[in-house]
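pasting for ref. prot 1 ->
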Amino acid sequence: MNSIARYIDHTLLKPEATKEAIKKLCEEAVKFGFACVCVNPMHVPNAFHFLKESKQVKICTVVGFPLGANLARVKAFEAQQAILQGADEIDMVINQSLIKDQDWTSLENDIKEVKFACGDKILKVILETAHLNEEEIKMAAKIASQAGANYVKTSTGFGRGGASFEAVQLMKASIGEEVKIKASGGVRDLTTAKKYIELGVSRIGTSSGVALVQGQTSNSSY
């Protein structure tokens, strides 16, 4: 079961999360060997402090979260500041309005601006697939791939739905071979996690990481 751990972005994005809760998150990530912790931007310095002795666990944060409706330059500034404070990976929320308007040029530029700010750091683009139809999912994933995303990600966990097997399959069919997939939102048990991995997912964003590696089912909402 420990092989599952390397897929997990151990996540705590609750707005009321305390410094002590972030410390616990980081300690669990080290103990179980998770790929990274995913925290809100204000907690990046805390995570950096708690993980300073770790050579394995990375720090991920979110930008434009959870709606994706920020200006591109604001998202880029968020990403830049987070990296300066110790973030290794950036999960940005895509601009869903641009998807609905089919303004693909502006959508690509939105992602490119954040990717430029990330430099050589990993950029994951959150599509919020439950808000999109099949064609929108495929096109958004394609645009993210073209714009330089390292990953496309299903969900924020704060929308009206989370990851689905169908969405992952649509995303996979639309991206380049070098782009990976992160499933997030509602992955609460080991069986579901393994199914996503079988479908080709490289990361799983969940606040239920400890339960997953222990073969348990969590009642967490993310």
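and prot 2 ->
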Amino acid sequence: MGACYSKKPLDQESIFFKVQKCIEKNIIMSLTSLTKTEEFTKNITNIDNPYFKIKELRVNALILALFFNSIDCFKYIHETLNASIDSMETLFNEQKTSAIEIICTRNCPDILDYYLPLYENNSGDEVVIEEVVESLNFTNTTEERKSRRIVSTYTPVQKACELGNLNIISRIYKYYKEKPFIPIALDFDYQDETTGENCPLISCRICNYTMIRFLHTTCQANFRLLNKLGENAVQILAAANKKKNFKDFYECFVYLVLNVGVDFTHNYEETLLLLETEKSINFFEKKLKEKGIEIDKYDLEEKYQLIRINQPRPLKEELLDVYQGRDFNFVKLYDDVMSDTDREEISGIFMDSRNTTPFVSILKDLPPN
């Protein structure tokens, strides 16, 4: 489909470059003027063709406006230039993604408001997870690469939740709150087939207090489900905190127990073993006692032989002790201790490792909205 397009950078004097810059900056007046020129009609004969580029990715005008959350240009291209939503989705489908997923992950609330009625009329009630090709080009002229399975099977709304895009979650809630049906892709309570997580459980795993409160208080989403490992919201939160030590952990923990009413007695020993701060431990032991469960974390650790053992320090770490203090000298440290370090240890990153989610390599380099 794109074999006829040159791979050279766009000439800054060309109509393609001018149009692309107008769309990226959402300058609707300039875009309107350009589309009325002879140069535009002569060169852009089909508005649905991928004339433009985001890095090495060929996109059409609608996709370009969507990526940059250029709502005025998006509406103009769709309504006035009669760009096809179906053609845009076809290009997205070839990359095993969709417009609604890009909107949710790129945090484009304005385009979401405009796009939801269009999406609702055409959405099916299925979540399709397929193998993806690592190549990010829409054309068939690039070297084909080995397919890989997508790691995340999350729906678009679950990805928005994981990224903390509260604006997206809020707009979806407002749009569907009075409607009898909501597509799986935008359903807060839908449980992922791989992890068993829904949006509330995801908000606990990322320890996002604002998201947790919004999903509970405003959306009345279901926090009482278990994931595929049989863990509830409290356990998921505690397990995530043990790995990352979130600053809002205690507030989230207390909120789930006192406000949401999650059954904190479910596998309570496992939860208690996961807690680390005295404040959280004391609170949890007190709530368990109110339920008639007398338990002490440190007795529990001893019961399961989880007493912390002092590990011997590496010799090289001990050598560094003499270099501490106000007279620290990095040059002397390097000469004495570090000069024999194998240079090959510096680079431990696999050179061919890459994220297999479509568009990720370009999303991270795009300016934030």
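The longest helix spans residues 109-122.
The chain is about 50% helix and 5% strand.
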